[in-house]
Design a protein that fits this description.
The protein is mainly beta and 121 residues long. Helix content is 0%, strand content 55%. The chain has no helices and 10 strands. The termini are far apart. The mean pLDDT is 92.
Length: 121
């Protein structure tokens, strides 16, 4: 059974930094294809923030480019989102997303439970 466990959310002042982590727990003989982060602000649709898939999908969206960095630890099946120079517009629930192949389900997307990031002005 696949589980994505996120951590690192919280309250931060504008201009501050935060690092989100997402660890994937996967069954034997599975493979993590790629991982990424989405966010959803109150009253808005969920949007892509960054992904480790670099072929067709942009690695990181323009609105956070230069401030956010995505990285992975493949050995730990963990993805990180380093967020610097945060501003109130970054306030949202951040969701980890992973495309994982398992014997039982093939390749499919999985989602974490979400972690709230609130940036105060």
């Amino acid at each position: 059974q696949v589980q994505l466990v996120e951590s690192g959310g919280g309250l931060v002042q504008a201009g501050g930094s935060r690092r989100l982590s997402c660890a994937a727990s996967t069954p034997s003989f599975s493979h993590v294809n790629f991982m990424g982060w989405y966010r959803q602000a109150a009253g808005k649709q969920r949007e892509l923030v960054a992904t480790t898939l670099t072929t067709e999908i942009p690695n990181i969206v323009d609105s956070v480019k230069g401030r956010f960095t995505i990285s992975t630890d493949n050995a730990k099946s963990t993805v990180y989102l380093q967020m610097n120079s945060l501003n109130p517009e970054d306030t949202a629930v951040y969701y980890c997303n992973a495309n994982i192949w398992t014997r039982a389900a093939g390749a499919r997307d999985y989602w974490g439970q979400g972690t709230q990031v609130t940036v105060s002005s």
